Amino acid sequence: MMRTRLDVWAFGLALGLAVGGSVAFPKAQAQFSPVEPGVKQETRPNLIPKQNIPIPDEEGRPQKVVITSPQVKDVVVTQHYPCQIHGQRYITVRALSAGSLEAIPVKEGQAVKKGDVLFQVVPILYKAKLEAELAEVKLAQIELDNTKKLFDKGVISQQELTLYQAKLEKAKTKAKLAEVELSFTTVKAPFDGLIGRLEQQEGSLVNTGDALTTLSDNSVMWVYFHVPEARYLEYVDRQGKRKDPSRLELVDSRIELMLADDRTFNQDAGNVVTVEGRFNNDTGTIAFRADFPNPDRLLRHGQSGTVLIRETLKNVTVIPQRATFELLDRRYVWVVGKDNVVHPREIVVQNETDDIFVIKKGLEVTDKIVLEGGRQLRDGDKVEYTFQKPESPTGNPKIDRKK
Questions:
Q1: Enclosing H/E stretch for 20
Q2: With a threshold of 0.85, does the pTM exceed it?
Q3: Is residue 403 in a domain?
Q4: pLDDT tens for residues 98-131?
């Protein structure tokens, strides 16, 4: 069967997509329908990939569009990172000695001060042991005093006196050890904090090392989140030389915390974070820690949320998102050139919000871009336009899902 010209055109288009990965935008020549005997050849309109089929103006008049220009201004963009919230100090309180628990003076969730008694093991055995060791100290002291009298009279040697002195020191050491063991029967709070769940109750028989409860210092919360390597390098470049490699200043930024109910926490962390010492090779990210004051103790250890890094980009080029279109994972705008002829131009987006794009490259403020009416355009079309002033960016920041 003879190949028609349309077959050849379609084959060439498919080959171009397979080899080049994209389609160029030159204005195509008219394509022809398959040739049938006795049938007149007819032309077909151009096709712009991923665009609606244009409707030609029957009178040949230029299409009417609305255009605008890129705008240069300061823009606040927001990066969102899931996070875990931890108290700046969080410990498991354990029994320091074995025995039976006396009445527990604290309750779950209670705020305690440093030095407050949390748990008490029945101390009878430990008190008896301390008293026995103190009695040994007294006995050793009496023996040493008698030995000194004999030494002064020349009855015994210096060596015998030294032995009794050593015996006294040993008795004192054992008494100190018994005193420490007795003190271990009382578990006190090592810092101000909040009591967690009580793992043992009054009368429970516990062994040394058994978990009793947890204690968390929630005056300042350590919030951990993971940042992609590329963004970490961007932050480092913007700060420049650092005195402390573990601390990083996010220049022109403010760090906030969004809670599980989508409200923003009433304290922010400034613009300084602590950087972990190594990257996670599996995720390509590094852990940051932001410190949030928690004066009302609203935040608790183990909560989750979202860190918001609000960054001010100064003197950047922005355009409305609706002025762009996508083709094969690339983004383009229609640019009005000389004689009011439009051509597509690829752009690179640096950041985005819900309604604007921050342009990294591809546009200048002197360019004229099609804002409305671009869906029916083809490369090389001539247009009539009305100019609309550049729009101010509005709306909520777009969530950055790329991690």
A1: helix 5-20
A2: no
A3: no
A4: 999 999 999 999 999 999 999 999 998 899 999 9
